[in-house]
Amino acid sequence: MEAAFIDRKTAHVDLKRGEVWVRPIPMKARRMLLGGRGINMLALLKYARPGLDPLSPEAPLIIGNGLLSGVPGISLARTSITGISPESGLLGDSNIGGRFCAAMRGTSFDHLLITGELKVPGIVVLQGDSATIQDGAWLWGQDAFETYESLKVHFGPSAEALVIGPGGENLVRFAQVRSLGRHAASRTGLGCTMGAKRLKAIVAIGLRHNQLDDLFDRQGYIELIKRLQKIVLAVDVAKHLGKRGTSFLYDIHSRMGLIRTKNATSASLPNANALRSAKLISDFYAKRDGCFSCQVRCQHSFMVREGKYAGTRGAGIEYGTLGSLGPVLGIADPAAVLAINHKLNRLGIDSCTVGNLLGAAIELFQKGIITEQDTGGLRLGWGDDDMVLQIIDQIARRQGFGDVLAGGPRAFCERYGAAAEDAMIWSKMLIQSDPVDVRAYAGFALGVATSTRGADHLRSRPTFEALGLSKKELRAIYGEDVGDAPGSTLGKARMVRHSEGLYAVCDAIGMCRFLVKFNSPDLLGLKELAELIHHSTGLTFSVSELEDVGHRISTIERLWLAGRGAAAQDALPKRYFEPMPGGKFKGHSMSQEDFERMLLEFRSISGLDGTTGAPLAARLRELGIDDELLDLV
Q1: Domain ranges within the chain, ordered by starting residue
Q2: Which of 128, 139, 144, 518 could crosslink 178 through cysteines, CB 3.0-4.6 Å?
Q3: How far is C-alpha 217 from the chain's CA centre?
Q4: pLDDT digit string, tens, across residues 498-530
Q5: Is the full-model pTM beyond 0.85?
């Protein structure tokens, strides 16, 4: 039974030569890195040499199901997509939910490594034991929604696809990879990588098969799932997610005054309460859905029933997008925010980068640094949804001022200099993934700075810092004293490292972040994940061994960053060292001295060089990261 589940393969696809070869995934790779993000990162370390351009034909695009992705029962629904980020030039990694994971599980492959470049647009198709390159010219020019639907018609109901829209085709540096109309691997611009390879889609045609029959301990797995489902569904945060979607997180941060407004230059936005979940539910939400085999079902569809956007309908909005396209741009009209997001989804362009990059551009326009001569006569102002929609069209087509923005934040800063860098809310040249002003919370700030893929809330954020837990409760979780005041730096390095390891394991097995100890200490931890792995595969891990897996993944990421000269770029944007303009935490800022002390502590406990942030040789030996490990991919 163990072999039936774990005996999976990696398909290596060379688009230029039209060649495919297949390798089994060694058991040692499973024990060291599990799958998903873990094995993807090892492949990136091996195949993306230092100095390789993100859009070079040789740059790899790596697709990886988690170790348990596609197994029914409890939202094991994530697929990781990895490469060199066209947006930042550094670590490119994102993951996507939906149903692609299950279709890929229905083939022989857990990982797909693509290099080369097609002369004419094409698609890669996984089916059974084969991976083939097929014609995709008939899809080129279709938007992301049209592409997905065309592929479903062409290949049938058992097919699922990862696709790009016009944003990826036209090499917008922050283009998404999308699936099923509502799901996206948005961050780091890997849709641009697909566009550069003229790869319109990746299709998996899964055989109809009961995956439970392949498990090591089918009955034990079923009993465990029943217990874990009860745990998850009893937690308040899961109930809120089901009823309100991730927009309820916007509610929480909005009430605390932590949503960045007008690119973090303004205290508040009049009528911003109109963006809260109660308004979205009452006026716009139409039905509820979820990813493969998920009981939480946090996704909502919407329809605008009146006003200038009447008739617009699509996938409900996520909390990061809600803030980035709303207050960050000075927009408080929920219909406008929904319509803007829907257009971005159709074009296949990351909403968080668009919101924050355009927010920086509006700020510079207000200061006279960007002028109408730059914008082709277009005036950039806060709260102007018509202007935003016009700019988005320009970005997707690479025309006018949109072409400047389509080059991403690095190119924007190169063009407009120090003023642009001062206005950019980013780290490692990646714009922050969510709209929270992190300078109020020391751990949040450290997480943004040290996140391996750039400014991020899903890589290592110690969310428990904002839950009002007591010192006793925090000590029980982290095993040492942790300050319970928001601005306290005590123990925050340990919190960030703890979160980093858990989230890496979560990505490596393919589990949704909302089921683990991310927004609540009552959700699943490494002990439960170890049980899932054992009943599914027969592999046995202790909690400490899983901790090592998580830290091995993040250490490989930092080793790769060191090879690109980027290990030392654990930094915060300049704005976070300035006082907050308003809200509950008005006047708060991150102290440079406190930040540097936390960073040094984080590097020390993580086995990193205190100055460069690169992994120390002793830490690499301890985790077994060596040339022999590279032979596993």
Answers
A1: 2-214, 237-415, 438-630
A2: 144
A3: 32
A4: 999 999 999 999 999 999 999 999 999 999 999
A5: yes
